[in-house]
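Dissemination and training. As part of the outreach component of the grant, students in the summer workshop were shown how a complex can be specified as a set of sequence lines and then modelled as a single object. The example used during the hands-on session is reproduced here so that future cohorts can follow it. Participants entered these lines:
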Amino acid sequence: MSGDLRPVPDRTIDAAGVPEPAARGRAAAVPPLSDDTRLAVAIRSFVENGQMDEAREQFSELVTQHQRRASRIAYQYLRDAAEADEAVQDAFVKVFSHITSYREAWPFEVWFTRILINGCLDRRKAQMRRDRWMAGAEVSSADEARVSAAHPGDDPEHRLLARERRARIASAIDRLDGRQRTVFMLSHYGDCTPREISAMTGLKESTVRVHLFRAVRKLRGLLGARS
Amino acid sequence: MKALEALSRHVQDERLLDACLAVRQGERPDPPVAEHLADCATCRVRYEELVQVLDLVRQEGETEADAIFTPERLRQQQMQIARRIEHVGRAARVISFPGRFVRRTMTASATPSASRWVAAAAAAGLFIGAALGASYGWGARGGYDLANDRRMTPVATRGTAPGEVAADDAFLSELELALERPHTRELRAFDALTPHVREIRDSQ
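and obtained this result:
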C-alpha cells in the first residue's frame, strides 16, 4: 500500500519502535525529558526489576495521558470507533510488553505514536481488503448517531449540515495519498511537529514538509471546489 | 514591472504553511515572513484563509472523535487495557493434570467384558439411528433440498469475533496471493465478468 510508512530497517526505528543508531545520533540535541518520557523510563525500571504491580500502576497514568489523543488519531485513520478502540488498546498493550526496549533518545510520545500508526496501517489494510471482497457492515451510521447525540441542543438542519461537512472533510482526507494522509493526520490531529513526524515515519524532515504542503494544497482544492 | 516584482516577493504557500504550523506549536514564525505578513494585506488574507481551512478540518475531526470517545468510553478502554496487561510478565501457570481421577476412570473401564458391552451398545445405537434416519428423515422431506438449505448459502458479511476476522484476513490474503500467481491470470477475464457482492450492494 502506498500509505505504508514503515521505514527500511536501517533508517530510524525498528519494528518495536526502538531508534536505530543513526537516529540516535540525530537526536543528540533532544531537549530535557518530558513528563511522559520520565514516566516511561520509570516503568521500564520497574519492569526490569520485576516490580510488575508498580509498573502497571504507573502505566495507567501513561494511558490516561495519551489515550484521548491516540483515539483521535486512530479514529481519523480508521473511521470506525470499534476498530479505533482496538487499535489504541493494542498499541498500549504492545508498549507495555516491549517497554524494556524503549530508549529515551526519543520522546515517549514519538515511540508510542509510531506503534499506534503501524497498527492502524495494518488494520486499514485489512479493512480495505475486506471491503474489496465482502459486503461490509454499516458501522459508520452508529458512530454518526453518537456524534449527533453528543449535541442534542442543535436543530436538525444544523445537525445535517454538520454531518455533511464532516463527511466532506473525511472524504477529502481519504482521497489524499497514503503518506500525505499520515503526515497530515499526525500534524493536525496528533499535534506533532515535522521533526517528530520524521522520527515516527522514517521520512526526512524536508520530505515530511513536502508531503504536508501537498496534502494541505490538495485538501484546500477538494474542500474549496465543493463548497 | 513593479507589480510583478511585488508579486514575486509574496510569501510562498510553503512558507505560509510553515508559519501557520509554527504558530500552532506556540513558536514564532520566520521573522521575514512575519514582517511581510504584517505589511502585505494580500498575504495576510491568504494566511488567514489557510488558518481557517486547517482549523475547520481540525475542529471537525476533534469534535467527531471526542463525541464518540466519551470520558466513559475512555475509562472502559483504560480498564480493558489494564485487564490485558495484567498477565504480561507473569510466568504461565501450569495446571496439574488430575491424575487420581484419571487412574480411577481407567480402572473402572479397564474390565474387558464391560468395554465390549459398551462398544456393542454404541454400534447398535448407531445402526438404529442410521436406519431410522434413512426411513423417516429423507422420505418426509422428499429428498434433500440443497437450494433451500440456508446453511449452504454463502453469505459474505464481515465477521465480528476477533478470531473470525483474523481467519477472514488470512483467507483473503491467500485469495489475493492466488490471484497474483501467473496460472490464474487467464481467469481474470472471467473475474471481470462476474458481479461482486459489493457492486450488487452498491447498485441496490
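Residues 52-78 of chain A form the longest helix (27 residues). Students were then asked to discuss how this feature might be tested experimentally.
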